[in-house]
Structure formats: structure tokens, C-alpha cells
Amino acid sequence: MQPGPHNAITDVPGVRVGQVERLDAPYLTGTTVVHVPGTAVAGVDVRGGAPGTRETDLLSPVNSNGAVNAIVLTGGSAFGLDTAGSVMRWLEERGEGVRVGQGEYDVVPIVPAAVIFDLARGGDFTARPEPSWGADAIAAATDGPVALGNHGAGAGARARSLKGGVGSASVRLDDGTTVGALVIVNAAGSAIDADGNLYGARYGLGDEFAQLRTPVEPPPPAAPGRNVIPGPPMNTVIAIVATDVPLDKAAAQRMAMVAHDGLARAVDPIHTLVDGDSIFALSTGPAAQGPRLSVTDPAALAQLETVYAAGARTLCRAIVHGMLNAESVQTPAGPIPSYRDTFPSAFSTT
């Protein structure tokens, strides 16, 4: 096994990513959109105690919706859900969605969404994603490299006292199929152990994280009041795992469920009452390849378990890339240092 050409979710055929962010004061937030022009079967699993989501019920295997057109990951807490509306309008203008009439544009695009809490991180509670940012992000979507760190919904993300951000990774399995992940690392928990090592780095493929060393600098303490506004910390890790293996809806939901293991390996603690941890799963594999894999088919179990395990590990690696690519920022409440700036010795070549 090895990473795909971009080591990103866009290595999965049929997946495109676009992002918009603002880092100029008082903004520190953004929006990330994953577009699947050919649609994708999707599932979701929400385990955080304070989620902010849209259109997740229709992904249940017991409901009739067959596929999604895009998924929005955004800052702005529940206010950020408005960005999905402009994504719907962008798709509608192109005739992408569930056909409900005879006209060319008589469609209802299916656009689930999840948010992180980053309100006031840039200094102004109202400086959050505008509804139009969703359309801007999907219009910019490509199947090329994904900008990591302080981009899209990762602009205002943090993981305990360190700057978080967008992370992505992929793997090509031995049978030629691909699994990818994209994550917004914004956790109440920590991505590092007591010695400053990134928890998820041990899951690197080959020499992916071979440059990392145990740092000599002490880890920073958790910063109280790090959300600027008073009250307990509010965060959330949101993510998407994707594969070109054809899955049915139940199998996609199970992929999302297992992917939470990747969060637990890379962030501690996870799934707290102040997190909204949510993971979507996408299958872009066309049904023309044969019957979609089902969790009730004993003949499919071996392949499903391989894909699920790859999804969890790839998400774990994506979190590491999000932390390694995040850049330090200044906020009215003080600096949010990056992993690189906090632990320069971790990158020592001597």
C-alpha cells in the first residue's frame, strides 16, 4: 500500500475539493466543499455531544435518498450551515440533483453539511462564513492537490492549545482501489501526547512521517478561554472518508462508523460533550462495476473490512497532515501556535 499521487481525498476518482477562507482580522474562518459530480452513495456517523449538521437523516439506510451531490464542512457553528444553501443553488443551475420534474433544472441537490465551532476566534462574533462562500468554494473545486492547514473550514480551527486545520490523506490498496480522507481538526482534546509526539504519526505509510522526532520542548498547557467568548470550550472534528469501492448505504454508514476509530487514535479525548464530532463516508464506485457491497453479504466482508480499516488509518494520517501544515495565528485572545512553531526540534535532521 502507498499514498495516492496527491496523498489527498481527491485521489479517489470522482471527488473534487474547493475551499474559501478569510484570515484578515476580525475573520478567522472558512468553508470547505467536497463535490462529487457523478454523485456518491453516502453515510454518516455523529458521535460528538454538540453536533451542528444538516441533511444527515436522509443518509440513513432506511430512508430512500440514493446519493449526494456535495458535502459542506464549514466554520461558523450553526450559522455556517447557511453556506450549504448557496451550494444547492450552484448545483441547481447545472442540473445536478434529484430529478423531481421534467425541466432541465427541476432538481433538488442533496448537500449534507457539518460545522465546527470557531465563532469569535478572529475577534468578532459576527465575522463568520457568508452564505455565498459555499458557492465560491464549490466553484473552485478541483480533483488536484488539497490546500492543507489554515484553509477552508480549517482557517480558525485549533486542537486544544495548538493550531488545527484542514488535513487530507489517501491510500492505494493492493487491489488497486483507493481510500481517501479529509478532516477539519478542531478538537477539545489534544493531538499530541505528553512528550509532544503527534498521536497519529505512527500510522504513517512508509517514510510519510519519518522526519518527525520526539521534541525536546515541553508541550504547552491547555489555554483557558481559548474560544474568546466566555464559557466552556466548544470545538468539533468533522471529516469525510471516501472510496471508489461500490458500497450500498448501509456499508457506507458502517465505513463512517469505523472511521471514528481514526479520530480516537489521533485525538485524546474525543467525542466529548463539547465536541460535535461527525464523519461522512462517500462511495463513488459506479454500480456498473457490479452489485454494491453490502454488510449482509458474507462474500463481501473481507473486502469491506479492508476498506474500513484503511478509512480509519487514512483519517488518522489526515489529522497529522492537518496539524503539520497548520500555521500560527494571532488572535485577540492571544496567539494560537502551530505544531511546527511549538516543537521545532521535532523536525531536526540531526
Automatic annotation (TrEMBL):
GO terms, molecular function: aminopeptidase activity
InterPro entries attached to this UniProt entry: ArgJ-like_dom_sf, Peptidase_S58_DmpA
Family (UniProt): Belongs to the peptidase S58 family.
Protein name in UniProt: P1 family peptidase
UniProt organism field: Kribbella sp. HUAS MG21
